[in-house]
Amino acid sequence: MAQLELHPVKATVDPVRRFPQLIGGLALYGASMAMLTRAGLGLDPWDVLHEGVMKQIGLSFGVVTALASLLVLLLWIPLRQRPGIGTVLNVLIISVTVDLVRLVLPDQHILFWQVVLLVGGVVLNALATATYVGARLGPGPRDGLMTGLAARTGWSVRVVRTLIEVTVLAGGWLLGGTVGLGTVLYAVSIGPLTQWMLGYVAWRPRSKDSRGTAV
After folding, report:
1. What is the rounded distance in angstroms from the CA atom of residue 200 to the CA atom of residue 19?
2. Taking 50 as the threshold, does the pLDDT of residue 1 lie above it?
3. d(CA 132, CA 140)
């Protein structure tokens, strides 16, 4: 299979297709986060951190997510990373959506429904990630931190991502975030699922002439 091109493309290129895809993907991502938090079986590393901070300072999950995103964006400055419209919308849409879905979706305490939310949340998270990344309108704050550090240090993306996620996972766990089966399931499945789904949803230019440069 040919390597997918996922570098950012100008927002003026095919906006009718790409902007709804971006917004829909980000909304689904927020919904998937809410599902995983309500399952109570473990979260992905960043959400373990978000939940841990939420428990310590009493703000909503979405507000903590947004604040963490803004702090991560500050780290972009020395890394010389440039945000795109997708970066800004990532912060706004995900933080709002996760809180809205959590308002109507209660915590689950019956194992069957916990597993349903967990598996459904992981699959939806992969689809959402593929959808918004595939729109190619700029990386999310955490994705940009990963690629920026990799570029500045010369380390592989795999090593940088592992170091970041181990750090935030440990910090979140110490703050009281939920680590469990869901954390392991997310870690082993999110990459392959996202890669597979990208093949179906990633935006591709109709011709080489329609390809833009980074936003």
Report:
1. 17
2. no
3. 9
